[in-house]
Amino acid sequence: MNPVIQTRQITKTFGSNGTAVHALRGIDLDVAKGEFLALIGPSGSGKSTLMAILGCLDRPTSGTYALDGEEVQSLSGRELAAIRNRKIGFVFQSYNLLPKASVARNVELPLLYAGVARKERRERALELLDQVGIPEKAAKLPGELSGGQKQRVSIARALAASPALLLADEPTGALDSKTGAEILELFGHLNQQGNTVVLVTHDLGIAAQAQRRVVLSDGLVASKEE
Amino acid sequence: MSRRLFRERMNEAWLEIRENLGRASLQSLGIMLGVASVLGGFSITDSFKKRSEQLYVKMGGLDKLNVQTSPVATEGSPTAMRAANLGLRQQDREDSAELKPGEVQGVSMVRSVRARVRSAQADQERQVLGIGGDHLAMEGYSVAQGRSLSTQDVESAAPVALLGSSAATDFFPNGDALGSILRIGNTPVQIVGVLEERYFVFSKENPRNQFWRRNRIIAVPSSLVQRRLQGDVHSRLDRITYRIPRIDAMPDFISELKSILKPNHRMEEDFRLDDVQSRIRKRNNNGEAYNLIFVLSGVLALLGGGLVNVNIQLASLKERVKEIGVRMALGAPGNEIFKSFMTEALLLTSLGGLVGLGAGVIFSWAITTILGVPLAMAFSSFMWAYLLAVVFGFAFALYPAWRASKLSPMEALHYE
Predict the structure, then answer these.
(1) CA distance B396 to B218
(2) Cβ–Cβ < 8 Å for B70, B270
(3) Between chain A and chain B, how many beta carbons pairs sit less than 8 Å apart?
(4) Residues ≥6 apart with Cβ < 8 Å to A17
């Protein structure tokens, strides 16, 4: 079976020649299906850059990246958008919910871009909100929710298109420790159900919750812990 | 699928507009003013045109060809040959009687004379109109009391007369004109009919009765003027008028008429043909020029509004970069972002355009009311005004929408 993530010698360089910044300098990373991986590293380690490439928001300067068996390093912007839509579920530190759309509509959004019919979308959204434990909030606006609830909405949204990969960027960074623990618990639960989770964090305590940790330093994988 | 997405885009666009009503109305203000100005301009010229047409109908229609005498020499003294010409005569009318009988719906003759006109109550120097043929009908007169002039009257040069409404009160202030005797020069004529008063005020700017002169008419048979009042053995005429309703028939008729008239006039053109309809048409082209001016001012308003719109769009784009980033991360391709921006702009333009049409109607109504002309609006004016607005709205939305669609998802997502 294909790994969900397989990168070979990924580099990313910003700027050119004299002022070039080498954010990534050859990353080999494999994440098997069903894994719960924590990507750790201090700021400046290239963590965010790697996360953007893994999330198909950006392309590597060189190297190959196969996501769920499909090579994506040289796809067009339009193709990448389709990959993001079908294969990746993002969870952000600051939730990034659309403030003017209802919770249910926020959850539906990836399905909208996938062209799913309205009725099906709504059913799926309600199902997902139930799964993340806030079925009663469907009609609310994001502004009416607590931080933990917002993050649950964003997790539901990430799950909407049944992606191959859940990519979470400091998902507990804006939450108090108790709520953060609950969210991590939810991720653990989702992982047990078979979802592949990559969690990007600088917090070793949070990383400890994952099955496996990869530490990034200075654009390279510093250590892998199985 | 694309139709579904279209509906979704409409929904979101509507939401966006509703949530930012202030910004949205500012954005569509230029469109509104542009539409209102184009529609208003069109309507004002339309209203004046319509009013003119009403006047022409009341005047007895425009579908006429006038043949009038004209001076034989424009400078210097005429040659003996020219001076000997008799001008337009009854004979010309009779020679042209056979010409295109299918097209000619009426013919009228006029021979007028200035004369001293007396009744028991008044004594004035007046123009007396000798008329023949279908003159009254072709000029839009109708008889209020008594009868009209008959063919018999014209053939026999009967000493009878018709008075216009104000002529009747001038000479018979007691209202007993019908049946009374009026002396024209030394010829006594009997009043056999009084004509209906005619009234038409074009607008408040021009409040005079357009027909005041026609109400002063003193009409007698043309033969009476020729034989009794002038003793003219040649039966000269001032004017012959042909009514030809089919415009296409006019040029042929004119050339054939000329070839009939010229031999009668020793090959001199001492007559002038005047196609009334084409003359009025040319004059009405001024209206088109005004329309152009209104369209231009509308276009300027739209241009100004469009540029303001671009600025507002670009400013609001900054507020929405993050949202665009989120949408892109969730799988919206650039062209989807472009389409949603365009949808929003077009919805806004359409709504603004509708409001503009409403404003244009009010504007046109106000202006025409002030000017005292009945409001006439053509459907095509609405179409043009709206079309113009939509085209401008679309054109000016392109750049901001393109900018939005070209954002990098990565940078948009991390924009603060």
Answers:
(1) 66
(2) yes
(3) 67
(4) none
User: How close does chain B come to A161, measured CA to CA in Å?
Assistant: 10
Q: Tens of pLDDT along A11-40? A: 999 887 778 888 999 999 999 999 999 999
- DSSP code of residue B206: B
The whole domain housing B187 covers 106-243
ipTM of the complex as predicted: 0.93
Q: Please spell the DSSP secondary structure of A66-122, one letter per residue.
A: EETTEE-TT--HHHHHHHHHHHEEEE-TT----TTS-HHHHHHHHHHHHT--HHHHH
- Of B16, B332, B408, which is closest to A113 when you measure between CB atoms? B332
* Integer Cα distance of A129 and A5 in angstroms: 27
What are the tens digits of pLDDT across the range B128-184?
A: 999 998 999 898 899 999 999 999 999 999 999 999 999 999 999 998 899 999 999
Residue A59: closest CA among chain B residues belongs to which residue? B410
The answer to whether A44 and A220 are in contact (CB under 8 A) is no
> How do the domains of chain A map onto residue ranges?
35-59+74-225
Eight-state DSSP code of residue A59? -
- Predicted TM-score (pTM) of this structure: 0.74
Q: Which residues face A39 on adjacent strands?
A: A200, A214
Q: Please name the fold of domain A35-59+74-225.
A: Rossmann fold (3.40.50)
CA nearest A95 in B: which residue? Answer: B326
Question: Which of A52, A92, A115 is the closest to B4 by Cβ?
Answer: A115
Domain membership flag for residue B86: no
Strands A62-67 and B160-163: unpaired
Q: Taking CB atoms and an 8 Å limit, are B331 and A82 in contact across chains?
A: yes
